[in-house]
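Work Package 3 (structural annotation) set out to generate three-dimensional models for the target panel prioritized at the project kickoff. During this period the team completed the workflow that converts sequence records into discrete structure tokens, so that structures can be stored uniformly alongside our sequence database. As a representative example, we reproduce one entry of 123 residues exactly as it appears in the project archive.
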Amino acid sequence: MKICSECQIEKPDDAFNPDERAYDGRHHCCRACENPDVEPPSADEKHCRSCATTKPRDAFRADARYADGLSCYCRACDNRKSREWARVNRERGAATRKAWLARNPDYYAKWRATADPKLNHKR
């Protein structure tokens, strides 16, 4: 248990963010006092770090790097960031695709053999 330096209420240790510089390893004020405008999302919602909005969990991509298994960015922000990266790094993306195609020369032939005939047209 720890007393928050802002609201002066005694709260459990997990109500405080980790802080490796503090003597007890926790921040001096609780999460509620540290971010008073941010309501914690419910179990079926998640907060996007980019657009700062709370959205349903199905608006986020799966990402095993995070504890809840979802990306920290919503799909709309993730798509926007990906398009921007591709625009800025056009040559790098082209080189990566060319190298992959050189390592996998039979990929498109196999795909054409198993794909829907409507999609099997050449450009």
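The two ends are 67 Å apart (CA to CA).
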